[in-house]
Amino acid sequence: MFAFVAVFLICFGLVQWVAAFGEIRGLSAVGFLYRAGVALGFVTFVSGVYLALAEPFPLLLLWLLPAFALAVGLSLLAGILTSWTTNPTRALMLPRPQDGYAAADVFVPVPEIGPAIQMPASYFAPADGLVRGGVLFVCGASDGRLSFKWRLIRELLAAGLAVLTIDPPGHGDFRAAPMTRSNALKSGRAALAWLRAQPGISRVAVCGMSLGGCQAINLAADDPQVGAVALLCAPVRLDVVTRRTYIREIAALLLPRNLALLREGSAVTLLREWLSLKPAWFGVNLYCLIEELDVLAAARRLGRRPLLIVHGTADAAVPVSNARRIAEAAGGSATVLLAPQATHVSLVLFPQEMRRLAEWLARHV
User: Quick count: other Cβ atoms within 10 Å of Cβ 69?
Assistant: First the structure.
């Protein structure tokens, strides 16, 4: 029994050190307290080593796997308890003075759909008024304008860009019209017009995720005043999503870079964000809608305007081959950025890739 306790304390101490040094709050037993996390890791690790000195080494090895599993499990539970009130989306919409930006929910008129149609959106702008350009962001299928977007939006703001993120037709809070190709592009045009009318914005870019990427590249192809386009895991076509697809996507979340998502909050924090998503109202089959948007044709119509394609190598829903096909269609104007281990769901929370995307948009806008 002492052998198990010794190995458990060593493992728990190591996990707490990882949580403290890596700022992984979802594994921390003391939340945001860095020094307390280091101290807790030190005390438990040293206590474990002290007990282990009195036990035979083979017995310690025997208990290694179960003790490590228990240490990780208890650390995850502790992370849930210490981060229970963490809500990254709410924090994004309620910036502190030191955050350096302003945020507001707005409504964008879409007269092409109907005279009384108002599209829900959120607008973010640097508080100092020094805006380098504006970015319209379009979310993916059955997604929402804010869910899981806090890292991307913060990186865009840090690059000096204002951001308008919308709920496309049939998504999020926009239930006045179903999602069709026509409604999507009418709403996108209205959003671009609204964004261009904001103070300090002379040039705009579009950025879209998954189905939102299909809409974004079509908007840019139809509007020569859009200066640049960025796509996240955009599909050329969508294979039938099966139970196996979901299993592969969930399994990939166990890859090391995906486990770092616990920096954003506990496992329950991320699960609550996922459960907040609303089912989409489609006016046409999703697979047919993606074919109608014809990403490859839109990429050819972009001409020589800058195009950035960001894609996760572990994307089970939209394989990385889609990114290569879009780049080939766009010719020399496309830049491909592959995110190792990123899945269809986790890509938008990868800090390094989202920072590079924001910097790229700032350069081209």
Answer: 12
Q: Write phi, then psi, for 163 (nearest 5 degrees).
A: -130, 130
Q: Helices H, strands E: what count in the chain?
A: 15, 8
Indicate yes or no: pTM above 0.90.
yes
Q: What is the 3-state secondary structure (H, E, C) of 112-172?
A: CCCCCCEEEEEEEEECCCCCCEEEEEECCCCCCCCCCCHHHHHHHHHCCEEEEEECCCCCC
The CATH number that domain 89-364 falls under is 3.40.50.1820
Half-sphere exposure at residue 61, Cβ-oriented, CA atoms within 13 angstroms: 3
To which residue do tokens 């890596």 refer?
22
Find out whether 336 and 324 touch, Cβ atoms under 8 Å. yes
Query: Residue written as tokens 């304008």?
Result: 145
Phi, psi of 285 (to 5 degrees): -55, 135
Residue from 327, 341, 336, 340 nearest 357 by CA: 336
Q: pLDDT at residue 5 above 90?
A: yes
pLDDT in tens, 149-167: 999 999 999 999 999 999 9
* Number of neighbouring beta carbons within 10 Å of residue 352: 12
Q: Answer whether 26's CB lies under 8 Å from 263's CB.
A: yes
Neighbours of 102 (CB within 10 A): 14
Domain regions of the chain by residue span: 2-84, 89-364
Q: Are 214 and 329 in contact (CB under 8 A)?
A: no
Q: What is the DSSP string of 261-305?
A: GGGSS-HHHHHHHHHTPPPP-BSS-HHHHHHHH-HHHHHHHTTTS
**Which residues lie across from 335 on neighbouring strands?**
308
